[in-house]
Design goal:
138 residues; alpha+beta; 2 helices
Length: 138
């Protein structure tokens, strides 16, 4: 199975003087990993979304990055949930409960990771398989 994706994102702060966005309508795994490298130390939002095709309900993986804290959300169409979209995130029960501000919104601290290799693993698995193991995002 070949997955086709759209890939885009936006940096916040001063990383480039002329262009702070990423748009790639046909990314390779190298494109994704090179772009992810930019988010290790920078703030921004990055999206990897399957192209809508016949017989394919597109899924979306979103990264929110700020101050070396990362939130990954995997959105999957699911008619069995109230709004039709199932959202899965990282979950680390060893982190303190409470809210943390990331990209202007408040999030449960247990959904945040400081482990960028986990972010990279999620993006690579999604790109290669079209899904993410529930042991990574639950």
């Amino acid at each position: 199975m070949i997955n086709r994706f759209k890939f885009n994102g936006t940096f916040y702060g001063r990383i480039y003087d002329y262009d702070k966005s990423i748009v790639n309508r046909s990314p390779t795994i190298e494109d994704i990993n090179n772009s992810l490298d930019l988010f290790v130390l920078n703030s921004g939002v990055l999206y990897l979304e399957q192209n809508e095709e016949e017989g394919n309900i597109p899924f979306r993986l979103t990264l929110y990055a700020e101050n070396q804290k990362y939130l990954v959300m995997f959105g999957k169409s699911n008619p069995e949930v109230d709004d039709g979209v199932e959202v899965r995130t990282f979950w680390d029960g060893t982190r303190a409960s409470g809210l943390i501000s990331l990209q202007g919104d408040l999030w449960d601290n247990r959904t945040i990771s400081e482990n960028f290799s986990l972010v990279r693993k999620a993006f690579n698995e999604f790109y290669l398989t079209g899904d993410i193991d529930q042991n990574i995002v639950s």
